[in-house]
User: Which sequence fits this backbone?
């Protein structure tokens, strides 16, 4: 269910994977790894996206966020269209190295969501609800511009 | 690539999915949806996990975090073994409703990681590195106890 990439290291044991210092990211059967992106200064969750091995290598190398767009089936340098370039302040991985966490500073208008909100997580699922209704958006919508990237 | 569940609502259009108030979570081809879990008070990223439709329904209903363990192929009431029950302070979904964000208060010793750290994200990927080496853990390791749940 997971694959490694020759671009990165190889963990020989579970202990090495979980407690070592070899970076051995585990991609899923589509060759993708999930990415959690938060705003470095405030900790706000901005978006959840995916990288393939090339997007991950480019992000490490140039210090701005690259993703894999599952919709467009293409590498995606976040901000190229919208100006919302994500400067990486810190990158982390988790215990079993199957997730990436990016803490970023966002250029342009500071947003990230293609719908126009500052964060993609603008709607609450009310606790104890019937599971069919969301609360109305409560995150700032930015003035219109090109939000598709 | 995504499926809905009769437990939740149905979005008829993209606009309804993205800007409406119908909760229509989109599960992947395994029937799972990714979950980002942060500590409500501090905003710290604790873990990245998965839910199936039943875990999501139970989380909404009882206000504590349920996941789907891909390792054990079973529902997983986080904290049942370790005492690290996650009380949900707020649940959100994102623009295209294919991710869940849980903001939680953690019971027990306040940890979440099966390796024993307070957060699963205890290792940094150094910027501009060769992509093969992680920095040593820099997140608090908790005193030993049963961490498998």
Assistant:
């Amino acid at each position: 269910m997971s694959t490694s990439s020759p671009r990165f290291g190889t963990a020989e044991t579970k202990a090495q994977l979980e407690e070592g210092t070899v970076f051995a990211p585990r991609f899923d059967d589509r060759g993708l790894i999930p990415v959690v992106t938060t705003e470095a200064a405030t900790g706000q969750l901005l978006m959840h996206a995916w990288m393939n091995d090339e997007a991950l290598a480019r992000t490490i190398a140039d210090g701005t966020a690259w993703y894999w767009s599952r919709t467009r089936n293409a590498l995606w340098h976040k901000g190229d269209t919208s100006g919302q370039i994500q400067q990486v302040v810190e990158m982390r991985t988790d215990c079993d190295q199957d997730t990436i966490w990016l803490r970023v500073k966002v250029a342009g208008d500071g947003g990230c969501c293609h719908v126009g909100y500052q964060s993609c997580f603008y709607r609450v699922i009310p606790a104890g609800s019937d599971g069919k209704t969301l609360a109305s958006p409560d995150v700032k919508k930015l003035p219109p511009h090109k939000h598709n990237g």
Remarks:
- The radius of gyration of chain A is 17 Å.
- The mean pLDDT of chain A is 93.
- Chain A has two helices and seven strands.
- The longest helix of chain A spans residues 53-62.
